[in-house]
Amino acid sequence: MTSRTGFFVLSGVLFLVALVCVGEGVQLIATGKPLGIGLGLCAFVVPVIGLWFLRQTVRFGRDSERLARELEAEGGLPVDELKRTGGGRIDRASADEVFARRKAEAEAAPGDWRVFFRLAVAYADAGDVPRARKTMQHAIGLHRTTGTTGTEPARSNA
Known about the structure:
The chain is an all-alpha fold. The protein has helices spanning 3-30, 34-74, 92-108, 113-125, 129-146.
């Protein structure tokens, strides 16, 4: 199963769970008892949190793909220069070497979203997914505030 298929399956399950929670919440509130009303209101909060999380995940994925497309159009996507083991896994020393280079690039150009995008890919290749996600979020934020060049202010849509 691909990541995208898994995402859509889990999103569908989340929507079903949200519907069940809302239905149970309505039934609990209909009891008219204070405890039932309190639990019913809590049953409405759980789907809201889940749907908010889903929205954030979709937004992150959409923004990451948009940056990747833009970087590809510029010819700036990171080239896969990693050495692999016989089984196809990334060689740790090779990933660390590329990571060190990407980190130096990011330190040299702290306002350029492109270098942070490439650093996020290097984090992911090195196996540090939480930092990869945080760095990609930083790249997305820089892209929003600096526009496409990384040096000029963002244009207003007004």
